[in-house]
Amino acid sequence: MRQALPEDESLAGLLGGRRGAVDATLPGVGYVIAWVIAERFAPGSTAIAVGCAAALAVGVAVSIVRLRRGSAPRAVVLGLLGVAVAAVIALHTGRAVDFFLVQVLSNAASALAWAASILIRWPFLGVIVGLVLGQRTRWRRDPALLRAYMRASWVWVGQYLVRLAVFVPLYMADQVVALGAARVVLSWPLVALCLAASWWVLRRSLPPDHPGLRHPSG
């Protein structure tokens, strides 16, 4: 009888994501640092413009590094586009904190999307892992695996809700520096915790005699 889930395997190993999560925070860090410095000499829209320019410069540098690492060009372009949209919003509204509005909205949308995927019995965690393992939708024909993915996907919903619980009050209070710091703290550390927690839920949800993620039954 095979173990349900090998001890040396994990969601972090299957999905990766550490570099991407870290890289995604760097433009925001560049924005906050440049904005804080510029605000001392030229407060207002000029400081925002300086911060946006720094964020875009960092975003371009990160994109080049990611391309050299072999990241998919589409993912790199989308990441840089996100930085550009955040900069445009901040420049348009004239509010420094609005650079992080995209992050607030994207986490709200992600929480809703992941919850909806569970309710319609197409949990995103199963979809993602199935694609990574080349299973397409075979995992959905395994009732135990489907149930395990649904339970573990709630952990990911919780991840986005935790970010919103921190981001929204800081955004409403116009706390640019604190929001930038929270963006860093709640990136890879929270993703790592989410991966570990959802992996634990998967392991606990599958019966002991289940063949494992790589071998959906049914």
TrEMBL record:
Pfam families, A to Z: DUF3159
UniProtKB keywords: Membrane, Transmembrane, Transmembrane helix
Membrane-spanning intervals of the chain: 44-65, 72-91, 111-133, 154-173, 185-202
Name the UniProt record assigns to this protein: DUF3159 domain-containing protein
Lineage, top ranks: Bacteria, Bacillati, Actinomycetota, Actinomycetes, Micromonosporales
